């Protein structure tokens, strides 16, 4: 090898932590051990290293949240003397160990929420007067319609720590039209320990499209700060409204610790309900998506359909043998919530209507 290049091998390990029902289990896994890189390190010039071994996919099964801490360690000759084919002159460099910076770590979190922040807040940002509003834009990577069931927020212990109420809003757009508000509720905030988010479950699920906004509206003159991560920057997705007009943020650099969380149901499975039945229930709907007419594979005692704003949707019901036919009146494209009542139990499913 040229004198300014150095051969090396590497070792990779992973710590996989799975959380299920608030119980966390961690396992340490050795991936590549003293694996030959296949090329030499050159000074200044960047190189791309492809790890040959990845964790078993079965380790990621059936968990509410998964965190993967990945570590890459390089085994170089930076601290080896010429006797061992290195270039370390102990008379010059002792006791410096040049391999102290030969390890890098990164962490990946797989969960039911979207986050622009890295999990730590260096600062806080707040609205400054009653009636002022904030909106945070989220753009879905998945173009399919989805269901928002929770908003995670970090309110640090800062300023006025008395019990305060703030209005939470889910907005379709920033046009200020009646149809732009998908969801709204007044909530008493909960301040958390350092960098611990408060998981606030919505009173009812909210159907969302390719993009939506999570908004906060100030209802008092108290200082209510939301955590601000300065290591990442999604400031261009923040909007303010203090006089009836929405203005894109240009002053705040960072990412607010506000995270939307989504239903984990698939293909119309239960997303939320009172006394929900397990997934093996027989109240299944088909076709789903539909054009507004669909069947229920049983005959519940009562059926209700709600749009994403919570309004009751008119429909007609017809019993056909052991199934029930549902025809929505004037259906339009979107997500609906089908609620079925049977013997004091409530079953809830998502219904998708397409053009």
Short description:
1% of the residues lie in helices and 43% in strands.
What does this structure look like?
There is one protein chain. The chain is built from 1 helix and 24 strands. The chain is globular and about 90 Å long. Helices cover 1% and strands 43% of the residues. About 5% of the residues have low confidence. Strands 10-9-12-7-14-15 form a 6-stranded antiparallel sheet, with no helix packed on it. Strands 1, 2, 3, 4 and 5 form a 5-stranded antiparallel sheet that branches. The chain has a 4-stranded antiparallel sheet with strand order 18-19-22-21, with no helix packed on it. The chain is an all-beta fold and 355 residues long.
Protein traits:
single chain, 355 residues, mainly beta, 6-stranded antiparallel β-sheet, globular
Spatial order of the strands forming the largest sheet: 10-9-12-7-14-15
Give the strand tally.
24
The first-to-last residue Cα distance is 65 Å
Largest sheet: 6 strands, antiparallel
